[in-house]
Amino acid sequence: MEYLDLWLIMRWFHVVAGVMWIGLLWYFNFVQIPTMPKIPDELKPAIGKHIAPAALFWFRWAAAFTVLWGLVLAYNQGYLVDALMLGAGKGLVSVTMIGIGMWFGMIMAFNVWFVIWPNQKIALGLVEAEADAKPKAARMAMLFSRTNTLLSFPMLYCMLAVSHGAG
Amino acid sequence: MDVILTDIKYTVIAGVVLTVIVVLIAPLIAG
Fold first, then answer.
1. pLDDT of A110-155, one tens digit each?
2. Domains identified in chain A, total number
3. Which candidate, A64, A69, A156, B6, has a CA 20 to 30 Å from the CA of A26?
4. Does the CB of A154 have a partner CB in chain B at under 8 Å?
5. In this structure, are residues A127 and A53 in contact, taking their beta carbons and an 8 Å threshold?
6. Which domain holds residue A108?
C-alpha cells in the first residue's frame, strides 16, 4: 500500500492537469497556429468555431487546476513561503528551483486567464466586438501564448529538478 | 524580440537558453 498515499495521488492529479495544460499549449503553438494559414478558408470555421473553443476550455481549467493544486502541494510539503521567496539565502538550490518554477507557472496561468482567454473570446467571435478588434486580439493572444511556450521549458526543468534531488 | 515570439523555432531556442540561465543563477539566489 506504500504507493497508495493521499499526497502521491494529489501530486498525480497535479501532474495529470499539468500535462493537459502544457500539452494543449504546445498543440496551439506547434500545430494549430502554424497550420491555420495553410487551411482553406471554407474549412477554417471548423477550427475557430469548434476545435479551438473546446481546446481552450480544457486548456484554461487545466491551467487553473495545475497551479492551485501545486500551491496546495507546496503548502503540504512545508516549502510554500520559502519557495515563493525563491529560497533566497536559504542555501537550498532545490527550493530556489521550485520557487522559480512556481513563479513561471503562476505567470503562465495569469496569462492564460487574463490575457489569452479574454483575447481569444474576441478573436473567435465568442463575445461581441468590432471587426477591427479581432485581428488585434488574435495577435495579442498569440504573443502571450508564445511567451507561455517559452516559459514552459524552464518551468518544466525547475519542476523536474526537485524530484531529481537537486541540492 | 518579435521574432522570438513569432517563429516557433526561436521560441524553443529562447526557452532552452532561459532554462540554462535559470540553472546557472539558481545557486547564486540560494546562496
1. 999 999 999 999 999 999 999 899 999 999 999 999 999 999 999 9
2. 1
3. A69
4. yes
5. no
6. 6-163
Can you tell me the ipTM of this complex? 0.95
The pTM score is: 0.94
For residue A33, list chain B residues with Cβ-Cβ distance below 8 A. 8
What is the extent of the structural domain holding B21?
Answer: 1-31
Q: Tens digit of pLDDT for each residue in A137-149?
A: 999 999 999 999 9
Q: Is residue A113 part of a domain?
A: yes
Query: Tell me: the pLDDT tens digits for B1-31?
Result: 778 998 999 999 999 999 999 999 999 999 9
Total domains in chain B come to 1
- Name which of A88, A92, A143 is nearest B5 (Cβ-Cβ): A143
In a domain, A1, yes or no: no
Lookup: cell for A63:
491551467
DSSP string over A122-154: HHTTSS---TTHHHHHHHHHHHHHHHHHHHHHH
A residues 2-31 closer than 8 Å to B (CB): 29-30
Put simply, whether A146 touches B (Cβ < 8 Å) is yes
